[in-house]
Design goal:
By secondary structure, the chain is an alpha+beta fold. The chain has a domain of 87 residues: Arc Repressor Mutant, subunit A (Orthogonal Bundle). 50% of the residues lie in helices and 12% in strands. The chain contains 6 helices and 3 strands, in the order αααβααββα. It has a 3-stranded antiparallel sheet with strand order 1-3-2. Helix 1 runs parallel beside helix 6 and helix 4 packs across helix 5. The radius of gyration is 15 Å and the shape is elongated. It starts with 11 loop residues before the first helix and ends in a 9-residue tail after the last helix.
Length: 125
């Protein structure tokens, strides 16, 4: 098995600040890698559902323990999906006693949307 380096947690709001929409010019390889990591994290139905569930919670945060039943998966599987989303810069994680709580990173989804849009008015620099 080949060992791969762990990517640092992405700051997707940096992408919005540095990059034109993908259709507005040529993106460099480093930024393309960062965008691809975020899109890979989103390209899974359970992860999309988890984002929706977290955003719908009072206060915009949820404990792993509250997310297992709605998606019908075990706690380790849900934790894995949440870790992928956190590593991609879409969620933040806060440990409280034995439970981890997750919330959306402000502006992360908007940054991804702005990069995919060919509408220059959708950007908020």
């Amino acid at each position: 098995m080949i060992a791969t380096a762990q990517l640092p947690v992405l700051d997707l709001t940096d992408l919005r600040a540095c990059c034109a929409p993908l259709t507005g010019g040529v993106i460099d390889s480093a930024d393309a890698e960062r965008v691809a990591t975020a899109l890979k994290a989103l390209a899974e139905p359970t992860r999309i559902r988890l984002i929706s569930l977290i955003a719908a919670q009072p206060g915009g945060e949820a404990c792993v323990c509250d997310l297992t039943d709605p998606v019908g998966l075990s706690q380790p599987t849900v934790s894995h999906h949440l870790k992928v989303l956190a590593d991609a810069g879409i969620l933040t994680r806060e440990q409280r006693t034995k439970w981890a709580y997750y919330r959306l990173v402000p502006g992360a989804l908007a940054a991804i949307g702005a990069l995919l849009s060919n509408d220059p008015t959708s950007r908020s620099d």
